[in-house]
Design a protein that fits this description.
It contains three helices and twelve strands; from the N terminus they run βαββββαβαββββββ. It has 174 residues and is α+β, with helices and mostly antiparallel strands. The protein has two domains: 107 residues, Alpha-Beta Plaits, CATH 3.30.70; 49 residues, SH3 type barrels. The strands form three sheets. It has a five-stranded antiparallel beta sheet with strand order 11-10-9-8-12, with no helix packed on it. A hairpin with an 8-residue loop joins strand 8 and strand 9. It is elongated, with a radius of gyration of 21 Å. One of its GO terms (biological process) is transcription antitermination. Keywords: Transcription, Transcription antitermination, Transcription regulation, Transcription termination. Belongs to the NusG family.
């Protein structure tokens, strides 16, 4: 039997509680050889409040927890009957595992595999430059590259709209 990743639906706001409860149940019921990892998918974002930048963690999939396990009747029972769990994600009677590709993307995005922080900003929004040679300029977001941690902004330089590539850490959202 292969170990695969499954998604478990939880009560709203209780993802971390479910993770702790499930880890305790795994230890107390001796299921370490069948249930391996429990992950609450989180990603780091940059939040700017009152001109101060800070890194915060946000849930990628609120209401869901990922569990790496070998699916059998006993492991299904342990997870399904953990307080706060409302069920497995999947169609029909049996839970459906995530594909390898989906797991890699989610783990990279959540920092389990190293990634970059995300900035909660979209094309068309207005930003202010807070560092570097364009300090105090304001501009319109042209594109956002979360992988590289860079953003392209249209700044008015000498009366012309000029695209400028900036780091996430050099800007704040207006």
């Amino acid at each position: 039997m292969n170990k695969l990743w499954y998604v478990v639906h939880t009560l709203a706001g209780s993802e971390h509680k479910v993770k702790a409860n499930l880890e305790r149940r795994i230890a107390s019921m001796g299921m370490q050889d069948q249930i391996f990892r429990v992950v609450v998918p989180m990603e780091e974002t940059i939040e700017v409040k009152r001109g101060k930048k800070r890194f915060t963690k946000k849930k990628v999939f609120p209401g869901y927890v990922m569990v790496e396990m070998m699916m059998n009747d006993r492991s299904w029972y342990v997870v399904r009957n953990t307080p706060g769990v409302t069920g497995f994600v999947g169609s029909g009677l049996r839970p459906e595992p995530l594909s390898e590709g989906e797991v890699k993307v989610i783990l990279r995005q959540t920092g389990v595999e190293k990634g970059r922080p995300r900035l909660d900003i979209e094309k068309g929004e207005t930003i202010k430059v807070i560092a570097g040679p364009f300090l105090n300029y304001t501009g319109i977001v042209e594109s956002v590259d979360h992988e590289k941690g860079k953003i392209t902004v249209l700044l008015s330089i000498f009366g012309r709209e000029t695209p400028v590539e900036l780091e996430f850490s050099d800007i704040e959202k207006l």
